[in-house]
Amino acid sequence: MSTLVEVGGADRDDWGAAHPRKSWFDVRPLADGVFLIAEPGHVNNFLIVGEDRAVLLDTGLGVADIRSVAEGLAGKPLSVVNSHYHFDHSGGNRLFDEIAIHRAGAELLAKPAPDGLAEGYMRYTQRMIEEWREYKRLDDTYFHLVTADTLIRPLPDGFDPANYQIVPTTATALLDDGDEIELGGRVLRVIHTPGHSPDSICLFDERDGLLFGGDTINTGPIYAQLEDSDVEAFARSARRLAGLADSVARVFVCHFMRVDNPPGLLREIADGFERLLDGSAPFRDSADSLGYPVREACFDHFSIFIAGEDSRAGPAVLRTRGQLDRDSPVPLYYQLQEVLKEDIDAGHWQPGEVLPSEAELEAWFGISRTVIRKALDVLEADGQVIRQKGRGTVVAPPKLVYGAVAAARE
Ligand SMILES: [Zn+2]
Predict the structure, then answer these.
(1) 359 or 385, which is more confident
(2) How far is the CA of 42 from the centre of ligand 1 (A)?
């Protein structure tokens, strides 16, 4: 049916032994002529087939050959529509000749990705793969939610995360709100839903009541915290989609495992944005997939991330310093421990407070764990911090007291 993209890695044998899956993509039919081509844990792409031609809605991360999979399933001329320009939806664009995106996304799609994004995402992927084993163990023992469809897979054979690149691509067609994409016996209507990004669209197959929600509708965190997000526009887009709910039967979303949702989700999300804007939503501090701190408004079937005061560059105390100076003769670990030490001395972190995790420091500064550990070693030897099992790196009590306690113990 479709080309198998083999997953690999040395540990294939103990990989989700209960539900072995050999392909990077989870491919399954969702409705007549509609297929999910998911990269589980990452992103969900959709193939929508008409009598004459087919559309692939989004091309995923680009770590495996999604074109051969989609063509194998479609068996007819195939073109790409991007739900928006973000790399996790357009990573496989380079494999295709015909790419359509909303007018507002064309330039963004052709622009190089921000520095460190590819590396940051691969670190996230690595963490997911590492921590997945524990999730699977708990699921096998208690919850039994994971199926063959929702297995996290190791990266495909021959793919080297160190070489992952986000390749800018050029759109060959521009979409506008209300455009209709004719597939033969099936029409997809373009609904421009700015908010997550300026170019976000949904596709609506009115005949079958299928709404493809892009990143506007999701079942985990809805990302409204990004630099190109607009929370008020997002709220308007969500309300507009809620207005369609009566003619929608199923809502397919681009992230997380609950791909297929009832139309009630549209109203829930519109209401959620309303509560977020009127200040009645419950918030907590959280972090996005790259480790940046965000504020999270939590609801029953989804949450909404918005930017915290200092979201884009780590906590305020770190942001004021900017990045470490890679050209400096002072080693990076030494620069990092200086930054942390000054912040501790300035009282930005109080004794007993937990410092950002190694993963967070890694994401904010774009430096390796080895460098981070070396910096923490220096601080620990200095008596500035204490490493506590299960808690992390904690700011030590003021030196004098700490010295007295240490002396008393000896
Ligand atoms: Zn996105």
Answers:
(1) 385
(2) 11
Q: Which structural domain, as residue segments, surrounds residue 373?
A: 316-395
CATH assignment of the domain containing 337: 1.10.10.10
User: Any idea what DSSP says for residue 224?
Assistant: -
Q: H helices of 231-347, where? A: 231-242, 264-278, 316-319, 332-345
Coil vs helix vs strand at 81: strand
Q: How far does residue 219's CA lie from ligand 1's centre (Å)?
A: 14
What single-letter DSSP state applies at residue 397?
P
Instruction: Give 84 Cα–ligand 1 centroid separation in angstroms.
Output: 7
- Count of domains for the chain: 2
Please indicate, yes or no, if residue 125 is contained in any of the structural domains.
Answer: yes
* Residue 22 pLDDT class (50, 70, 90 cuts): confident
Element at 17 (helix H, strand E): none
pLDDT in tens, 220-264: 999 999 989 999 999 999 999 999 999 999 999 999 999 999 999
Residue 249 lies inside a defined structural domain of this protein: no
* CA 126 to ligand 1 centroid distance, Å: 20
Neighbours of ion ligand 1 (CB under 5 A): 86, 215
